[in-house]
């Protein structure tokens, strides 16, 4: 052990000056105040992996030693040779003392050799001999300067700690560590070096026990309560946590965040770069209790999920702001979650709520994300065991060229330590607001550094609803008490990647590395204008990102353009004056080759968008944005009186639905909208069953575009059906371009009900709009091809001539590949009957259109009759004893899953149990049969619905975000008001309160739409059967009233429910008739308002 050349027991000059372990309450650097009081006295660093990159050297020397030895045993003892692998090093040796690690590894291979003595030669077959052989190899590597790497980021932190009077020690159980530190020039920076010899002399237990850490702290005059430990190994972190040290920092240099946190690290980072100040450690120490409440399963997301589990205590968003989402304090652990919440989009272009200065936190994560709806990569799906008909290619929505970065630095260089932002100084007055009426996100904070320089930062963002290719951001920095050069860097960067799926298939994609490659860069106007053109690797799509910066300030400034690697940036050096704001207005555009097939025209298109955006100016785009949203809210607003939190949640959900939906017939709406990379940006049945009802009764023109998307992908559906030896068309379960992208067929392709779901939405669209032009040119063709499909895949049972559909999966993915899924059969029957009805209608009233379809499809008269026969003979499994519809032929004969007896941390089941273990039990992930009883409610009696609801509610886990809204609707219909209200509240704030602990990967668009249909279909009892609207409203006891607006058959009406009565008001159109509690109501321009009792 050494202390700047002193032996243990000697006191360093700094220690004497500070009176042993007494430290000044407020430290000063020169004349400047350290803003965050430092409340710890010492920091202990492990050597291996923290101070020096010796971990790899240790592993290399162990591998060389042990592979040599194991090969010798193969020759001598005829044992099979299995090489020493990285996993062996991690599991048995890393973090342990040399001899202990060797003993553990040999025991794992069932190898017993003599212990020997420490003096054994390296050639001897003993524990000590092998350990000495490894030690010799390691020293040979260390002695070569080329092999030794000192982590300068850690050294920078040590220097900052020393300057602020904090004692620093290093700990290692390697006998070579002192040599490493001496060679690397680090030893003289330490107050204490504690090595294996000292530990042995003291009789201390090694890691994971805390003895070594504790004794080292004592040697420096401190206790664990005011000492911080830093280690790269799980054993060292475990020892620090056991010893109850003030803070345990894990260096996750191999991205092993999860393992280190499970071992006890309060905070994990990959490197100290960006955290080279004592104040960072203090900040982490103050918030460590939040970061370590519980251990989560997903690497990289633990602390975010931990914090989100405490929402009720943390109150991240004020629920009193009905038109805004306000974040008035920054919580690092939920940074990634809030990137989703504060995402802005327009149905085509989306930008996650990333900070302009980037993210450098230690207790959260960030997913910088910009996406274009329908812009994707298509890469080969790799199967361990493939079979005929498996989908061949992934489709993944790509993270695009980064364009949101604007960074400010004090000084004339962009040096990281001088950056003005959330992680380099003290931040106060923080506030971020998503304004649902303006369609903007604003952020502001006051920043102060260690020199007491204060700056105010204000930002504003919009993604235009008027021009789908345009986004605008405003960045203003005002130095409040200093005159000095401020350097601003605004860039676009092509070095982007996607989130990689780990253990959760809902999180990201299989793409690894960069798949969007830079092929061209341009810069003009000294870098203020720039474009980057990129091409995908497999799908051969091309896109361009462009920026144009406008500088507004009274201060003098210069501009320089630079191209660095894949980045184009503008450096603006401003001679900043106290109190004078400096503003950058950054116009951003994205175009792609799906819209402009001739990719040589993309840069020109980008330039036109940027110049037009700049010419019109920020105020113009803000005005247009608010005007667009004013119209949206006028025709779709929902008001809740008595619960501002639910009111906020409903409006937030509606806003995100508007942001997420494609409107061009080429794109759709993904399960995560455009807010994140969960489910790879795929479109599912969620669109037709959950999202379309919201848009159908508020913005029906959007529904036509969504149905056009299905028509435009009909040829792909025909090809997929043919590939599976079926007639007609089979739509993909998950897709972007129209091809099937689900690699797991039991919960993918087998969900044939997607066909009937699409036709259900077509039928509802026609009932609400009477759009015969769409039906005759597009809809009927989809309808007839799907009817052909059902007749082809089903068959008539010989025993009773019932039409059965075998080997399918229904909405409940906890039951797969079953016979006669009840939901599927009911929906297929409706599909078939609607095909018959439309064929009769077209043949009678639209003969020319019908003939055209008959000729195009080769439709035979006998086919239509067969559709009717199959519909009439459709089989539905039913249990007479229980009086319920069975989810499928075998469902009720299975053993029931013990939901109450399953630990909470084992949900969702799909992440904790093998599919077969789930499939063989009676358990539902979500509503299945009950969904059919809502969608086709006029086919079922109230008594039947009640019996089915009571049975299936008990065996449903609601692991799917699609479940709660269906239960809310049916519970409301059946008079189960408490159940209905409970399920509604689950959907209304599902993402704001992160109920499913995965909103950081993107919103749940189906659940958001489910909020709207829960209120309108549940509380208001709104149904549309055979083109006729009906209402059966009631008022939850918790509310004073609620209202909503709908459009039906070109007439807009408002439904206003209060205590005791409901008022229906015609807002636009020629009038409408409907039923209120089975009584007819007529609204007309002459009599636009009718009030009825509840």
**Total number of strands:** 42
Mean pLDDT level: 91
What's the Cα radius of gyration? 33 Å
Q: Which regions have little confidence, pLDDT < 50, spanning 5+ residues?
A: 1-34, 290-314
Distance between the termini: 83 Å
Secondary structure class reads alpha+beta
Largest sheet: 9 strands, antiparallel
Biggest sheet strand line-up: 9-17-18-19-20-27-24-23-22
What do you see in this structure?
By secondary structure, this protein is of the alpha+beta class. The protein is built from 32 helices and 42 strands. A nine-stranded antiparallel β-sheet has the order 9-17-18-19-20-27-24-23-22. A six-stranded parallel β-sheet has the order 5-4-3-6-7-8, with helices on both faces. It is globular, with a radius of gyration of 33 Å.
In brief:
With 1094 residues, the chain is an alpha+beta fold.
Features:
single chain; 1094 residues; globular
List the helices and strands and how they pair.
Layout: H1 13-17, E1 28-29, E2 32-33, E3 42-46, H2 55-77, H3 86-93, H4 98-108, H5 127-143, H6 152-163, E4 167-171, H7 177-183, E5 192-194, H8 196-202, H9 211-219, E6 227-231, H10 234-242, E7 247-251, H11 257-263, E8 267-269, H12 278-291, H13 302-308, H14 311-314, E9 324-327, H15 335-341, E10 344-345, E11 349-351, E12 370-372, E13 376-377, E14 396-397, E15 406-410, E16 419-420, E17 426-435, E18 440-448, E19 454-463, E20 470-479, E21 484-493, E22 516-524, E23 529-536, E24 542-552, E25 557-564, E26 567-576, E27 582-592, H16 602-616, H17 618-636, E28 638-641, H18 644-660, H19 686-696, H20 700-712, H21 714-723, H22 753-769, H23 772-793, E29 795-796, E30 803-804, H24 822-845, H25 847-857, H26 861-872, E31 878-879, E32 884-885, E33 895-896, H27 915-919, E34 921-922, H28 929-935, H29 942-953, H30 963-973, H31 977-988, H32 1005-1019, E35 1023-1025, E36 1028-1031, E37 1041-1048, E38 1051-1058, E39 1061-1068, E40 1072-1076, E41 1079-1083, E42 1089-1093
Parallel strand pairs: 3-4, 3-6, 4-5, 6-7, 7-8, 33-34, 36-40
Antiparallel strand pairs: 1-2, 9-17, 10-11, 11-12, 13-14, 15-16, 15-21, 17-18, 18-19, 19-20, 20-27, 21-26, 22-23, 23-24, 24-27, 25-26, 28-37, 29-30, 31-32, 35-36, 37-38, 38-39, 39-42, 40-41
């Amino acid at each position: 052990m050494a202390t700047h050349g002193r032996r243990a027991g000697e006191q360093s000059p700094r220690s004497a000056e500070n009176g042993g372990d007494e430290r000044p309450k407020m430290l000063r650097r020169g004349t400047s105040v350290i803003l965050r009081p430092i409340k710890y006295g010492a920091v202990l660093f492990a050597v291996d992996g923290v101070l020096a990159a010796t971990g790899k050297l240790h592993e290399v020397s162990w591998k060389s030693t042990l592979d040599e030895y194991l090969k010798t045993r193969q020759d001598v003892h005829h044992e099979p040779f299995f090489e020493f692998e990285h996993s062996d090093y991690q599991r048995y040796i890393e973090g342990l003392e040399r001899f202990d690690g060797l003993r553990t590894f040999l025991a794992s291979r069932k190898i017993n050799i003599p212990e020997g003595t420490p003096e054994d030669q390296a050639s001897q077959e003993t524990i000590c001999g092998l350990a000495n052989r490894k030690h010799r190899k390691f020293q040979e590597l260390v002695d070569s300067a080329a092999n030794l790497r000192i982590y300068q980021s850690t050294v920078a932190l040590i220097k900052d700690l020393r300057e602020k009077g904090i004692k620093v020690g290093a700990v290692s159980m390697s006998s070579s560590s002192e040599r490493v530190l001496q060679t690397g020039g680090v030893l003289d920076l330490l107050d204490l070096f504690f090595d294996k010899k000292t530990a042995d002399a003291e009789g201390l237990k090694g890691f994971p026990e805390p003895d070594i850490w504790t004794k080292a702290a004592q040697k420096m005059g401190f206790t664990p309560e005011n000492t911080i430990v830093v280690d790269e190994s799980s054993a060292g972190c475990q020892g620090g946590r056991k010893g109850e040290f003030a803070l345990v920092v894990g260096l996750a240099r191999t991205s092993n965040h999860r393992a280190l946190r499970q071992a006890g690290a309060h905070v994990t980072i990959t490197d100290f770069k960006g955290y080279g100040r004592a104040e960072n450690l203090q900040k982490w120490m103050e918030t460590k209790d939040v970061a370590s409440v519980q251990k989560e399963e997903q690497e990289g997301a633990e602390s975010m999920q931990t914090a989100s589990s405490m929402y009720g205590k943390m109150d991240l968003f004020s629920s009193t702001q009905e038109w805004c989402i306000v974040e008035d304090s920054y919580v690092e652990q939920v940074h990634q979650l809030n990137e989703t919440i504060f995402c802005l989009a327009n149905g085509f272009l989306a930008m996650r709520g990333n900070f302009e200065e980037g993210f450098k936190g230690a207790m959260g994560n960030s997913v910088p994300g910009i996406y274009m709806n329908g812009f994707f990569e298509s890469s080969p799906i790799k199967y361990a065991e493939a079979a005929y008909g498996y989908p061949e290619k992934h489709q993944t929505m790509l993270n695009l060229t980064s364009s949101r970065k604007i960074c400010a630095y004090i000084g004339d260089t962009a040096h990281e330590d001088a950056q003005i932002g959330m992680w380099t100084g003290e931040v106060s007055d923080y506030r971020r607001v998503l304004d649902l009426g303006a369609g903007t996100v604003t952020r502001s904070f006051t920043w102060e550094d260690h020199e007491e320089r204060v700056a105010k930062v204000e930002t504003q963002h919009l993604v235009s609803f008027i021009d789908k290719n345009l986004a605008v951001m405003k960045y203003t920095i005002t130095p409040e008490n200093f005159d000095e050069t401020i350097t601003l860097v605004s860039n676009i960067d092509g070095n982007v990647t996607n989130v990689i799926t780990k253990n959760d298939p809902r999180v990201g994609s299989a793409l690894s590395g960069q798949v969007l490659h830079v092929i061209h860069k341009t810069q003009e106007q000294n870098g203020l204008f720039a474009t980057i053109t990129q091409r995908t690797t497999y799908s051969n799509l091309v896109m361009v990102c462009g920026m144009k910066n406008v500088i507004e300030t009274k201060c003098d400034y210069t501009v320089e353009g630079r191209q660095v690697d894949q980045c184009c940036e503008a450096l603006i050096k401003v001679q900043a004056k106290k109190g004078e704001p400096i503003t950058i207005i950054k116009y951003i555009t994205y175009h792609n080759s799906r819209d402009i097939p001739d990719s040589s025209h993309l840069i020109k298109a980008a330039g036109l968008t940027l110049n037009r955006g700049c010419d019109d100016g920020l105020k113009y785009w803000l005005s247009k944005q608010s005007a667009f949203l004013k119209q949206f809210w006028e025709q779709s607003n929902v008001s809740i009186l008595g619960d501002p939190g639910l009111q906020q949640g409903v409006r937030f959900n509606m806003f995100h639905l508007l942001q997420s939906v494609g409107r061009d017939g080429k794109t759709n709406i993904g399960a995560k909208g455009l807010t994140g990379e969960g489910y790879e940006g795929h479109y599912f049945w969620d669109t037709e069953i959950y999202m379309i009802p919201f848009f159908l009764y508020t913005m029906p023109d959007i529904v036509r575009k969504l149905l056009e998307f299905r028509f435009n992908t009909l040829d792909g559906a025909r090809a997929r059906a043919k590939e599976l030896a079926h007639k007609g068309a089979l739509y993909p379960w998950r897709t972007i371009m129209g091809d099937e992208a689900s690699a797991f067929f039991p919960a993918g392709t087998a969900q044939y009900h997607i066909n009937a779901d699409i036709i259900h939405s077509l039928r509802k669209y026609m009932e609400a709009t009477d759009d015969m032009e769409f039906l005759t040119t597009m809809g009927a063709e989809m309808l007839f091809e799907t009817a052909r499909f059902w007749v082809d895949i089903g068959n008539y049972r010989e025993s009773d001539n019932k039409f059965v559909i075998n080997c399918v999966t229904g909405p409940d993915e906890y039951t797969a590949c079953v016979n006669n899924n009840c939901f599927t059969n009911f929906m297929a029957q409706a599909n078939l009957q609607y095909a018959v009805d439309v064929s009769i209608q077209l043949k009678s009233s639209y003969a020319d259109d019908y003939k055209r379809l008959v000729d195009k499809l080769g439709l035979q008269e006998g086919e239509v009759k067969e559709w009717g026969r199959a519909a009439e003979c459709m089989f539905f499994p039913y249990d007479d004893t229980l009086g319920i519809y069975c989810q499928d032929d075998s469902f009720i004969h299975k053993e029931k899953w013990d939901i109450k007896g399953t630990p909470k941390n084992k949900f969702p089941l799909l992440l904790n149990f093998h599919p077969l273990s789930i499939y063989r039990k009676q358990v539902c992930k979500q509503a299945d049969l009950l969904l059919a009883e809502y969608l086709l409610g006029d086919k079922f009696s109230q008594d039947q619905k009640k019996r089915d609801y009571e049975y299936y509610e008990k065996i449903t886990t609601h692991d799917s975000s699609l479940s709660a809204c269906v239960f809310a609707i049916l519970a409301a219909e059946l008079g189960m008001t408490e159940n209905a209200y409970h399920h509604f509240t689950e959907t209304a704030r599902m993402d704001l309160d992160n109920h499913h602990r995965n909103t950081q990967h993107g919103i749940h668009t189906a659940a958001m739409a489910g909020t709207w249909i829960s209120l309108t279909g549940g509380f208001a009892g709104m149904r549309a059967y055979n083109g006729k609207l009906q209402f059966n409203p009631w008022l939850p006891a918790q509310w004073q009233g609620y209202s909503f607006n709908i459009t039906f058959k070109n007439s807009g009406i408002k439904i206003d429910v209060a205590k005791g009565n409901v008022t229906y008001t015609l807002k636009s159109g020629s009038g409408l008739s409907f039923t209120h509690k089975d009584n007819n109501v007529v609204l007309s321009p002459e009599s636009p308002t009718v009030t009825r009792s509840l």
